[in-house]
TrEMBL record:
Protein name, UniProt field: DNA-binding response regulator
Cellular component terms (Gene Ontology): cytoplasm
Biological process (GO), any one: phosphorelay signal transduction system
Residue intervals of the HTH luxR-type domain: 140-205
A Pfam family this chain is assigned to: GerE
Domain Response regulatory: 3-119
Amino acid sequence: MIRVLLVDDHEMVRLGVGSYLAAQPDIEVAGEAENGLQAIKLALELRPDIILMDLVMKEMDGIEATGQIIDAWPEAKIIIVTSFLDDEKVYPALEAGATSYMLKTSKASEIAAAVRNTYHGQSVLEPEVTGKMMVKMRQKALPHEQLTLREKEILLLMAQGKTNQEIADELFIALKTVKVHVSNVLSKLDVQDRTQAVIYAFKHHIVK
């Protein structure tokens, strides 16, 4: 049996989700909490397999509760179940240690499936959350990770001290094309000139 702790400040939500989960042959509702403080106490007492955590609650919200539970019990598996998809909720919840992120608009069967998948070590994210995370990852990417293969190739040749004309001759491309690529490299690395680009390349071990 997968033991689940339900955390939500709305009794009807707990009743609805709890009734559906309790009817499943492999899931048991081990306890219920209506705020973050109760969630922490019950989580550490009951040590459930899965915690279904609401975000916006009185006394203590789900993000704070998730962080404190993970700090005290790193193995805890927490599924956020909320109505919110805004960035100030999604990222802090995942950074606090939540394993999965579901919306309350999900079907009860989808919540049950998320419980099973999370229990077996998978992370379950709403498609909208996945999209947001991909955007966030791209924003956090290092500048040189945005370079194309050709731009990286030209950066390596720049590091070897080759001029634009020498790069054009070696790669069998037009000088004008090389200048465009060099300009793109400087722009993506956010540097002012070739020297700074080469320093960046050595600093980040793009060239050795």
